[in-house]
């Protein structure tokens, strides 16, 4: 049975749009996009590895050093397998104001994750697997967590082009989620249920094409 590993942040985890800060919630499996994709990939096993707050490269001074996705990806790739495909959708948290990251710096974080995934060690461990880089849709600076994303909208608008170029250079596939879905106007970051469904369908199609 082929296996797909979905690596990401709260939008891979299935966090609903935030109405009240500090309240934990998670959409059910019938809503979350990795499970939607699983339903459209008969015969595939789908592993969900979404951590709210995860970045591609930054230890979070508030949420903890474990938010740095580089160690998380190594752990995930060594915990599961063998896998046949990997999706990486990160960057939303990297544009938080506290990191001061340029679009190029955010893309560099994705490059680091690709270096890990495509390393001889990891590819050999799993017998070879393909990677799908997913650029998250642009954030909106509104809602209860808007103060954490001051200036982030303009940075996020630059990411699709940079991710696309990076994926091409590294031999990975690319999906611009912003062409498929939008973030919720409730908090400007997370996805509504219908967006999860649409993204799950798009990811399933992209995985079949790998």
UniProtKB/TrEMBL annotation:
GO terms for molecular function: hydrolase activity, acting on ester bonds. CDD domains: SGNH_arylesterase_like. InterPro entries: SGNH_hydro, SGNH_hydro_sf. Residues 6-196 form the SGNH hydrolase-type esterase domain. This is SGNH hydrolase-type esterase domain-containing protein.
């Amino acid at each position: 049975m082929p296996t797909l590993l979905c690596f990401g942040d709260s939008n891979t985890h299935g966090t609903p749009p935030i109405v009240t800060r500090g309240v934990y919630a998670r959409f059910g499996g019938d809503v979350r996009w990795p499970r939607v994709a699983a339903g459209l990939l008969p015969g595939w096993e789908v592993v969900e590895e979404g951590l709210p707050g995860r970045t591609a490269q930054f230890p979070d001074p508030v949420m903890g050093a474990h938010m740095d996705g580089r160690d998380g990806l190594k752990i995930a790739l060594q915990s599961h397998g063998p896998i046949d495909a990997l999706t990486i959708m990160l960057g939303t948290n990297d544009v938080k104001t506290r990191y001061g990251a340029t679009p190029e710096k955010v893309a560099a974080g994705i490059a680091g994750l690709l270096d890990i995934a495509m390393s001889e060690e990891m590819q050999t461990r799993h017998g070879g697997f393909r990677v799908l880089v997913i650029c998250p849709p642009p954030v909106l600076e509104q809602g209860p967590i808007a103060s954490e994303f001051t200036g982030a909208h303009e940075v996020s608008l630059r990411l699709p082009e940079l991710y696309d170029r990076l994926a091409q250079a590294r031999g990975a596939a690319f999906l611009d989620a912003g062409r498929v879905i939008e973030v919720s106007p409730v908090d400007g970051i997370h996805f509504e249920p219908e967006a999860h469904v649409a993204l799950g369908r798009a990811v399933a199609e992209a995985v079949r094409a790998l």
